[in-house]
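User: Can you predict the 3D structure for this chain?
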Amino acid sequence: MRLRSTLNPEEQTNFVEGPTRYRMGPNQSQLLCGFCNEPYYVDDVTFSQAASVMEEGLDNPFCCDECEEENEEIAH
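Assistant: Here is the predicted structure, written as structure tokens:
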């Protein structure tokens, strides 16, 4: 058995896909992109994952979509 919200996530209230430049829906926690250093807002799960990695002394793992695309182009 599956929840309707799992089958149709676009119909969820406050559904936001990915990081945003402004606070909206579940994206209430601010993270800086590890490459361009621009602020983005992410959901609590993404923020917790990034915070736990940074607490271990590793570099900021968060990368915005624009920087990720740019890094993929450079890699090819």
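The helical segments are 4-7, 44-55, 65-75. The two ends are 42 Å apart (CA to CA).
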